[in-house]
Amino acid sequence: MIHKKTIKAYVYQRDQGKCFHCGKSIRFNQTTLDHYFPKSRGGTEEFFNLVACCKFCNRMKKSVVPKDWLTINIELFKKAVLDGKVISQVEPKYNQDELVGLAHGIESIFRNKINTVFEGDGYRLYVKENKIYKMVRFHHEEE
């Protein structure tokens, strides 16, 4: 498990010391972490679902699910893979360049009670606790 200060430091740096919602610069010690897809609705503690947030915006957002949560979670997932924060536990192990290539092709996301699933053209990545623990390849049926 990753220490909360390490998570906060990464998210703060990734979001360039600004509130993800209002864009205002915030000091590290004044930063809160917002679960972009709310934790109360099943959102995870993973890098791709956390954004730097000022206290005011975090209070105002409450448990609202942003309309763009799918797009934002996918983009933040791609960034976390690129930054080496999401790693693979799939055998055989994928190197960083291979993971970045897979992440780049992600087009959709869905959640279940166990994990988050990112889907690209012909594959799914099952992610839990910032680790890709399963990959399934499939072929689309021609119509």
What general form does the structure show? globular
Broad structural category: alpha+beta
* Main sheet strand line-up: 3-7-6-5-4
The total count of helices amounts to 4
Strand content: 15-25%
Order of helices and strands: HEEHHEHEEEE
Radius of gyration: 16 Å
How many structural domains in the coordinates? 2
Largest sheet, strands/sense/barrel:
5 strands, mixed
How many E-type strands? Answer: 7
Fraction of residues in helices?
25-40%
Distance between the termini: 45 Å
Q: List segments where confidence is low: pLDDT < 50 over at least 5 consecutive residues.
A: none
InterPro entries: HNH_5, HNH_nuc, NA-targeting_endonuclease
Organism: Fusibacter ferrireducens
GO molecular function: endonuclease activity
Domain HNH nuclease: 6-59
Structure commentary:
The protein is globular. The chain is α+β, with helices and mostly antiparallel strands and 143 residues long. Strands 3-7-6-5-4 form a 5-stranded mixed sheet, covered by helices on one side. It has a two-stranded antiparallel ribbon with strand order 1-2. The chain folds into 2 domains: 4-61, Orthogonal Bundle (DNA Binding (I), subunit A); 69-137. It is built from 4 helices and 7 strands, in the order αββααβαββββ. Strand 6 (123-128) and strand 7 (131-137) form a beta hairpin. The mean pLDDT is 92. Helices cover 29% and strands 22% of the residues. The N and C termini lie far apart (45 Å). It has helices spanning 4-14, 55-61, 69-82, 96-104; strands spanning 32-35, 50-53, 87-88, 108-111, 116-120, 123-128, 131-137.
